[in-house]
Structure formats: structure tokens, C-alpha cells
Design brief:
The protein is of the alpha/beta class. It has one domain (3-182, 212-237): 3-Layer(aba) Sandwich (Rossmann fold). The protein has helices at 12-23, 36-48, 63-77, 100-110, 112-127, 139-143, 149-169, 194-202, 212-222; strands at residues 3-6, 27-32, 52-57, 82-85, 132-136, 175-181, 234-237. Helix 3 (63-77) runs parallel beside helix 5 (112-127) and helix 4 packs parallel to helix 7.
């Protein structure tokens, strides 16, 4: 049985990824930080459906907590085959409203968190024989978004991280790819009013918002043997928005 560690997996895209991997036969390690109740409910749902799931609490911005999480994955699952770096937070406001502590918190979670989880898990991923690292960026990491400078900067960093690490790990047989979602129906995007969402839909060729399963299905495919010759790619799941 293969093991997958998904950061920020208690809700939204991460939770959908957890369910998809569990249905595909993976032992899923559901990382969460503050949303313990949601993580436990998700794991219970996965178990009732016949899947194997282990919740693991860690703040991805803290390397020591991430190291402990990796140790738990090794203890309970024997290793890590796939890492999905999904944990992220956002701040919506002008650049002048983005105070230093806000900037740092977003960078620490959305970008340094990707570094921490990857750095800590990489020895296990390289030893798995099926190494996959899949990072979740954003359409705003490609284009940038007004009033989301910190988030856009962090997600752009994830894209650069993906492209560089893919070249470095290619000889080891580990693939590194990135998914850049467009507007997805999640709690994080619930802050936008109807007019804003309508504008985004109007600028999306497929004329709808995306679902968390749209993203999860792409992530699962990148972890499969069908994507074994794909690395260093930024795949937009955005209805053509980009």
C-alpha cells in the first residue's frame, strides 16, 4: 500500500484530495493545524468507506512539527510515497494594508511550508520507488491578483520551487509538479461577493466555477503511473481562465 501525506487536508481541496487518494487505495495522512474537528470527521468518513486514514496535527510553518509528522507517517505507514503540499492561507487587502506580520505569516505558511514538508519528507519520497511531489499553487501565482500581493507572491514562489526541484530530482526518479487552480468553490473563496464571482465566471471560458474534485482528480492523476513521464509542469485547473 502506498502512503500519501496531504498538508492542509482537513477541508476544501485538501479534503477532496484525501478522499480521492483513499478511494484509490492509499493510506492517507491528513495533516491539519487548527481544524481538528473537521480532520477527525473526514478521517471517520474515509474509514467508513473502507479507506485507511491517519490524522496528523502540525503547523507546516514550523519545521520541527513537520519533522514529527514525517516520523509519524514512517511509524504508521512505513514511509511516504506521495507528498501533496496543499496547506495555505490568504489575505485580501491592499498592499498598504499588508502589514509585515501578515506578509510573513502568508509566506511562512504558503511558501516556507512547502519547503519544510518537502525537505522533511524527501528522504522517504526518494526511497519509495514511486516518488511524487505535487504542489498546489494558484492562478494568481501565474498572473498575480490585485489586493492579494502576498498570496500571489507566495504562490509564484511555489511555481519556481516546482520547476527547479523537478530538474534536481529527475535523476532520482522523483517527479515534481504543480497544480494552479482558478476560482474553486471553497471556504477560502467564500469572502468574495456575488458580483466578484460573477465577474470571474464571465472571464472563464467554461463559464463556471471549479469544484474541489476538479483539482483532486488532477492531483491523483499526477500521482499515478499514467503521469510518470511528466515533471516540472504547472497545470492550470481553471476552466481556461489563464
Amino acid at each position: 500500500m502506498k502512503n500519501v501525506l496531504i498538508t492542509g487536508a482537513s477541508r476544501g481541496i485538501g479534503a477532496s484530495c484525501a478522499e480521492a487518494f483513499a478511494k484509490a487505495g492509499f493510506h492517507v495522512f491528513v495533516n491539519y493545524n487548527n481544524s481538528e474537528e473537521q480532520a477527525l470527521v473526514l478521517c471517520e468518513k474515509i474509514r467508513k468507506e473502507g479507506g485507511i486514514c491517519t490524522p496528523v496535527k502540525a503547523d507546516v510553518s514550523d519545521m520541527e512539527q513537520v519533522r514529527r509528522t514525517v516520523s509519524l507517517c514512517v511509524y504508521h505507514g512505513g514511509g511516504i510515497d506521495v507528498l501533496v503540499n496543499n496547506a495555505g492561507i490568504d489575505f485580501y487587502g491592499t498592499f498598504e494594508q499588508t502589514e509585515p506580520q501578515i506578509w510573513q505569516k502568508i509566506i511562512d505558511t504558503d511558501l516556507t511550508g512547502v519547503y519544510n514538508a518537502t525537505y522533511a519528507a524527501l528522504p522517504e519520497i526518494k526511497n519509495s520507488g514511486h516518488g511524487r511531489i505535487i504542489n498546489i499553487s494558484s492562478v494568481w501565482g501565474v498572473h498575480g491578483a490585485s489586493c492579494e500581493v502576498a498570496y500571489s507572491a507566495a504562490k509564484a514562489g511555489v511555481i519556481g520551487f516546482t520547476k527547479a526541484l523537478a530538474k534536481e530530482l529527475g535523476p532520482s526518479g522523483v517527479t515534481v509538479n504543480c497544480v494552479a487552480p482558478g476560482y474553486i468553490d471553497t471556504d477560502m473563496n467564500g469572502m468574495f461577493d456575488k458580483a466578484t464571482v460573477s465577474d470571474i465566471i464571465n472571464r472563464t471560458p467554461l463559464s463556471r466555477t471549479g469544484s474541489v474534485s476538479d483539482v483532486a482528480d488532477t492531483v491523483l492523476w499526477l500521482a499515478s503511473e499514467k503521469a510518470s513521464f511528466i515533471t516540472g509542469q504547472i497545470i492550470g485547473v481553471d476552466g481556461g481562465f489563464m
